[in-house]
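re: ur question from the group chat, yeah i did fold both. here u go
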Amino acid sequence: MTTATSAFPRTNGPQLLGQTVVIIGGSAGIGLETGRRARAAGAEVILTARNPARLAEAAREVGALSTAAFDANDSASLERFFDSLPDPIDHVLVTAGGPHYGPLLEMDADEVRHAVTDHLMLELQVARHARGKMRAGGTLLFMSGTGGGRIRPGLGILAAATAALPPFTAALALELAPVRVNLIAAGFVDTPLSASLLGDGLEARREELRATLPIGRVVGPADVAALAVHIMTNTALTGATYDIDGGQQFVG
């Protein structure tokens, strides 16, 4: 008979007590909600985002340990940020970055290159800079989407870029072990970003999803945040992709 052990001791108190969670893209939406939930679970939370004013407001809401305002796609800024962090940190969630849309034949070579590699390169850079700071059993947690799983007119390179992320995550999990690496693939989530993209069509999209999703409601940031914190606290999870879309990919 064998006895499994966890890198983080079990306690009867808050699940993330004594741990540090870094959220890259933490001033709104999924990142901000994950910060709230991680803080409620006992973690110290460090938030980053590009907009200093919005980041400061988010930090007040969450009670963040510290913040840093920079563009995560700027490699030098990202490296300086991780160099400045105290040792050790336990979990890193990356919500920064977004998908690229557009007809393939209207994209030039540079646009295709960026669409395919931007998300991968951001995650790779985070992994490189975070690995020396992270405690065994912690997790790097990346965000993707389920929307690229179906080939549709107008989505362009999205399906190919999305398809690359699960095996990339699994490969990183092997290379970074015992640090864990996981991927959350979300469908439509009712966030400020969704509102800005859809504009006047937002409420129609919400109504469509309420009528068609098996769960009968729209997925919100709190749903994704709950999954993110679960992945942080369950030290048996690594190298995997977790879909969270309320069944959207099954009903169109």
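okk and heres the other one u asked abt
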Amino acid sequence: MRNIFPRWVNTVPIKLIIALGMIGGAVVAGITYYATPKYTRVGYQPTQPVSYNHEFHAGQLGLDCRYCHHSVDKSSHANIPSANVCMSCHKNVKADSPLLEPVRTSYFGEDINKDGKLSDGEDVNGDGINNRPSIPWVRIHKAPDYVYFNHAIHVNRGVSCVECHGRIDQMEEVYHSKSLSMGFCLECHREPEKALRPMGEVTNLSWAADILASSLPNDSAHADVHAGLDIKQKWGVNPPLSCTGCHR
């Protein structure tokens, strides 16, 4: 056989093994680097059943985040607003707008005449008889099931919605603005003073310590840290850095 194949053929298997190993390593490295929330989630913007304009409601009207997401400072989970929250305003404002049809369907359910009674005349005031389908909102922000995140703990220590969700008050359609990856969370846990602000400013999405900046000989970014350090020391904010802080 040595008369048929040249000697260099003996090195082909080794070269193939090395090449496959290098290709496999490159694929694993690429997946490890790019298959993360920073690249797979940031920018995610699903189409919602109701085109709710956050820029108008939270930005121009100045609607407090807690009006719709009322459990964000009381519960570990932020609630999705139900139809009755929307209709508390839209019973009188654009009550017949076709854009709000999914909201009205969820609110009135089988109450065809919208008078609190079913077609057979049975009263349905709060007794659950009236079948009210939920508004099929599409979830945008979601941490993995193995991650423990408590909204109330963060909000009640001066962490604004902006830190995780971005400038919601400037978004017509909400999209996934921050990566919410493990590295993203650890950066904040290592230096919480950069994210802390006075409790009265937590839902003020445009707050940037401008008043402090005008009274200090540095820029507003340094003023943010200055205010955050005061809050960190006053409240003894010491976020966990071990795995058990989030993986329970």
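fwiw on the second one: The chain has eleven helices and no strands. The radius of gyration is 27 Å. idk if thats what u expected
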